[in-house]
Specification:
17 helices, 38% helix, 2 domains, alpha/beta, formyl-coa transferase, domain 3, seven-stranded mixed β-sheet, Rossmann fold
Length: 403
């Protein structure tokens, strides 16, 4: 049986929040040994947003498939243990506020003295060496700074609506995986390590690259368009039968328009000259959307989706979590995995969203308790005796797991 793609690769994660923890989860699910450095003195801040640091749903999602090494970096003995761990590692990642890892003695220049060929990724909201490097940065703020938030609303909304999903964080974690995989290949060919500066606000800006291009060419500042598309109609979320039920419909070409008309039964309005081609439909999009909704409102969203998809028209019901869990596609592809956590209990989590034909991915593992793997890491990787581990735990250098 083929081994996991990253089997034999060791990662040290100074991750907090979302970007580097999620990056570590992805690498762990590809087979890497990911060791999360944390302590009760300085926990991942997501562990602190509830009464029990081992039962925070956001943490338990973002930190799966990793081991927790509880070590106090305010103590020199703790720092020395981490330096010894780094000697065994291939990759180090951090996303603390600018300057934090330097003050601890674990920035890139410090780490490569310990491991010259290390691959080191640093991800801050505004990257390294900029006027904003030391600014506090969270996902919603980065959506605003990148320009994404200015578009994230309906035209009639009095302010940018946005979302409570920190999209820049989640996207940056995936870009971070890509970056270190490239660096691993480069090191394989050259023997050289790498410092990677991943600027989260630039990742967010990549979402709306066409709007930057439009401004640079046409000097046009994009306006809020909600769910509409400036180049296609009908293209929107339409109300369906039921309480707050919706289906998104996307008709991109005149051929798709004809198929849409057939699927809805060719009512009189579909033959109106105002909707004869894409340009005409865009000119009369307000009227068109109202007429489309006269059909969708008579049907449940899944029925709308299936009817249009059968006709070759893109459509998808706006699902909530319960709908997605019960969706036949989700079940068939095993998109969710149930894991048993000693504190949180049995919960559903998102599975790895791809399959590899010639490699076996290890099963996803639940998030660790704080310090859960301290003892085994000390024994297996650092060659420490039980007496040494006990003594350092009593001195507050090491954290044993708590429940």
């Amino acid at each position: 049986m083929a081994s996991a793609p990253l089997e034999g690769i060791r990662v040290i994660s100074f991750g907090t929040g979302a970007v580097i923890p999620e990056w570590g989860k992805a690498l762990g699910e590809l087979g890497a040994d990911v060791i999360k450095i944390e302590s009760r003195e300085n926990p991942d801040f997501v562990r602190t947003i509830g009464p029990d640091m081992n039962n925070i749903h956001g943490f338990n999602e973002s930190n799966r498939s990793q081991r927790s090494f509880g070590v106090n970096l305010k103590k020199e003995k703790g720092k020395e243990l981490v330096r010894r761990l780094i000697k065994t590692a291939d990759i180090v990642g951090e996303n603390f506020r600018g300057g934090a890892v330097r003050s601890l003695g674990f920035d890139y220049e410090d780490v490569r003295k310990t491991k010259p060929d290390i691959i080191y990724i640093s991800s801050q909201g505004f990257g390294q060496g900029t006027p904003y490097t030391n600014y506090q940065a969270y996902g919603p703020m980065l959506a605003a700074a990148s320009g994404v938030l200015s578009l994230w609303a309906q035209p009639t909304d009095p302010y940018p609506v946005g979302a409570n999903v920190p999209l820049p964080d989640h996207m940056a974690s995936k870009q971070a995986v890509f970056a270190v995989l490239v660096a691993l290949d480069y090191r394989r060919r050259t023997g050289k390590g790498q410092f990677i500066d991943l600027c989260q606000v630039e990742v967010a800006a990549c979402i709306i690259g066409e709007y930057y291009l439009d401004y640079s060419i046409n000097h046009r500042v994009a306006a809020k368009v909600g769910n509409r598309n400036p180049f296609a109609a009908p293209y929107n979320a339409y109300r369906c039968r039921g309480q707050d039920q919706w289906c998104v419909i996307s008709v991109l070409t005149n051929d798709e328009w004809m198929r849409f008309c057939d699927a809805v039964g060719n009512p009189d309005w579909t033959r109106d000259p105002r909707f004869a081609d894409t340009v005409s439909r865009l000119r009369n999009v307000d009227d068109l959307d109202k007429l489309v909704e006269t059909w969708t409102i008579e049907h449940e969203p899944r029925e709308v989706m299936n009817t249009l998809q059968a006709a070759g028209v893109a459509a998808g019901m706006a699902q909530r979590a319960a709908d997605t869990i019960d969706d036949p596609h989700t079940k068939e592809t095993k998109a969710l995995v149930e894991l048993d956590h000693p504190v949180a209990g049995r919960r559903l989590y998102t599975n790895v969203p791809y399959r590899l034909s010639n490699a076996t991915l290890p099963p996803s593992r639940r998030a660790p308790l704080l310090g859960e793997h301290t003892d085994e890491i000390c024994r297996e990787l650092l060659g420490m005796s039980p007496e040494e581990i006990r003594k350092l735990t009593e001195e507050g250098v090491l954290d044993a797991p708590s429940r």
